[in-house]
Amino acid sequence: MTTKQRKIYYVTILILGLFSMAWQVTLFRNTIIDVSILIGIIIVVGIITFLVDFKNYGKTYKKKGIGLYFYSGMQYILSYGFIACSIFIMTNFYMANSEPIKETYEIVKRSSLPGRKYHRDERKPTFDINYNGKIKELVFPHKYYEKMEFYTKVELEVRKGYFGFDILENKKLN
After folding, report:
1. CA distance linking residue 106 with residue 110, whole number of Å
2. Measured between alpha carbons, how far is 49 from 106 in angstroms, rounded to an integer?
3. Is pLDDT of 43 > 90?
4. Is the pLDDT assigned to residue 132 strictly greater than 90?
5. Domain ranges of the chain
6. d(C-alpha 7, C-alpha 3), whole Å
7. From 35, 37, 52, 81, which residue has the greatest number of CB atoms within 10 Å?
8. How many other CB atoms are found less than 10 A from the CB of residue 118?
9. Model confidence over 110-120: pLDDT tens digits?
10. Transmembrane stretches, by residue range (predicted)?
C-alpha cells in the first residue's frame, strides 16, 4: 500500500470505529453487561493492533517521539478496539435466544437525562434497579417524566444473549 492509501485507510477505519461506538451505546443500554468487560475488549484489541501495525503507522505519518505513540495508540483504540467491541455486543444482542422471561425489580434510584438537541427541556426519566447484584440504569421516554416519583417497580422481559449476557426486550413501569 502506498502512503496515500494508508492515510485513507486509517481515516476510514477511525470513522467506522466512531460510528460503531455510537451504535454500541444504543445496544449497551439494552444489555446487562459490566462496562469493564467492554473496556477490556477495547484496550486488548487496541494493544494487539498497536503491536502488529505500529511500524506501518509510523511510516504513514511523519511524527516522532511521544506524539507518534499517543496518536497511534488512540487510532488503534478508537478504531479497531471499538469495532471489535461493537462486533462482540452486536453478536450477543442479535444472535440471542428467542425465549423472553418476565421479571419484576424494585426501583433503587431515580434521576433524569436531558432530551435531544433542541428538546433539552424534555427530560427522560432514568431508573436504577438492582439486577442480580448489579445496578442497571434504565432510560424511559419523556412521557413518564411527570409521574416518575409514583413508580416503584419495573417489569422486564429478558432473554439470554449469545455470550450469556442478558438482553432487555421490553420494559414497563409499575
Report:
1. 11
2. 43
3. yes
4. no
5. 3-94, 101-173
6. 6
7. 81
8. 7
9. 998 888 888 77
10. 7-26, 32-52, 73-95
Instruction: Kindly give, in sequence order, each residue whose CB lies less than 8 Å from that of residue 3, ignoring residues fewer than 6 positions away.
Output: 59, 60
Residue 135 has pLDDT above 90, yes or no: no
Q: Please, what is the angle between helix 66-76 and helix 35-60, to 10°?
A: 130
Quick one: how far is CA 47 from the chain centroid? 19
Q: How far is CA 48 from CA 18, 21, 41, 43, 134, in A?
A: 19, 19, 11, 9, 30
Task: Look up residue 38 and give its three cell numbers.
Answer: 467492554
Q: Which residue has the cell 477505519?
A: 13
Record the cell numbers describing residue 48, joined without a space.
494487539
Q: Which three cell numbers stand for residue 20?
A: 460503531
Q: What confidence tens digit (pLDDT) does each residue in 157-170 have?
A: 999 999 999 998 88
